[in-house]
Amino acid sequence: LSSKVTLNNGQKMPVEGLGVWKATLHEASFAVETAIKDGYLLIDTAKQYGNEAGVGDGIRKGLAATGKKREDLFITTKVFNGDQGYQKTLDNFQGSLDRLGLDYLDLYLIHWPVDGLYKETWQALEKLYSEGKVKSIGVSNFDQEHMDDLLQDATVTPAVDQIEFNPLLQQEEMRDYAKKIDMKIEAWSPLGGGQALNDPKLKKIADQYGKSVAQVILRWDLQSNIITIPKSVHAQRIEQNADIYDFELSDDDMGAISLLNQNKRSLWYQDFDWHTPHKQNAYHDEVDQ
Ligand code: A2P
């Protein structure tokens, strides 16, 4: 869990962390506190998840319980679609910091490449970066076309592109592209939102190592140089997902997993309208105690 990669700006980022998409405020607080106690250093949220305040609560509790410091952690959040544009992004960044109860972020991402706005949004991220309010900046759900377009005017190359990635969706082209520009790929829904957990071939491999399918998938991420952020709100799973440093997948098994690719996106993705910036921005300001 303490393993880190060096990003293209020299900052170090943990290779595995906790995701909290779909977690309520309370669940997020519990999951983050539990994860920090288990040794997780990377926590990934987004304004759109509506749980930044819960994450902040969990961070404070986790730090208090472990004696760790804010600087030991690596906290990511994201600017959502309806909040994009130069000034709106600057304002929203401050809102996220306030909800999280932090005075800087480790990584701020453009959540989706909203047409006509993401370049302006990137300029705001570059400003926040130059002011030291965020240590690294990146994108999420950008394909090669978006990246080429962004890089035409960018002065900072995104450190990370966080994309949907799991054994059924291996994103080979984007990984090659990222390598060329020295950008890291981070996997959202690395367990395929739970879907990949039922794969019989993965189950067979997992049984050989005496590990769960989730552990095999997450280990495969690490050995593939993909930063990974499995989501769970259950203590046992949070602990299990971090217990992947005592085994190594053989080349044969790595090869067998690479054959599972089906370029299969999650079902909701096909219907999700991320091109237009009018979508929901609901969030909650406080954790009900
Ligand atoms: P839960 O939060 O109830 O534990 P992904 O990160 O790919 O989106 O997958 C998250 C889904 O997988 C969630 O539904 C989560 O459920 C579940 N999950 C997370 N870790 C495990 C695990 N180790 N075993 C089984 N299910 C898991």
TrEMBL record:
Keywords per UniProt: NADP, Oxidoreductase
Gene3D superfamilies registered for this protein in UniProt: NADP-dependent oxidoreductase domain
Superkingdom of origin: Bacteria
UniProt entry tagged with the keyword Membrane: no
Residues holding substrate: H111
Domain NADP-dependent oxidoreductase: 26-258
Gene Ontology MF: a single term: oxidoreductase activity, acting on the CH-OH group of donors, NAD or NADP as acceptor
Swiss-Prot/TrEMBL site (Lowers pKa of active site Tyr) positions: K78
PROSITE patterns: ALDOKETO_REDUCTASE_2, ALDOKETO_REDUCTASE_3
Active site: Y49 (proton donor)
Short name of one Pfam family: Aldo_ket_red
Family: Belongs to the aldo/keto reductase family.
Record PANTHER family: 2,5-DIKETO-D-GLUCONIC ACID REDUCTASE (PTHR43827), NADP-DEPENDENT OXIDOREDUCTASE DOMAIN-CONTAINING PROTEIN (PTHR43827:SF3)
Entry protein name: Oxidoreductase
